[in-house]
Amino acid sequence: MEKLLTNYYETASIILFGVGFVTLLLHSNLIKKIIGMNIMDTAIFLFFISKGYIYGKEAPIIRGVHKGIQGYINPVPTALMLTGIVVAVSITAFALALTIKLYEKYGTVELDEIMRIRGE
Length: 120
Known about the structure:
Blueprint: H1 2-6, H2 8-26, H3 30-52, H4 76-106, H5 111-119
């Protein structure tokens, strides 16, 4: 139990991922599925950024005196997460555009209703 409280960022990211995954699986509304996917993305970003941070070290921006390689954190995880955020926003925009097209064609965003209409 103590490790859960010590690693609260990781614990929160796992809980967020679970909430997003359950939302993605249990709801038939496409907007809710997109929201669940975004919650999962956010959980992954939180997890990797919390793993990339080292307490007591600084961002690799040299101001004045250089502290050596041991004085700074690795910037690669943060850069990868910035790239991931851009990809996640792009996928969200694409999914919302597809949802709009589905709504225009079928008049609903409920996946069960769309499958019922297509089955007729």
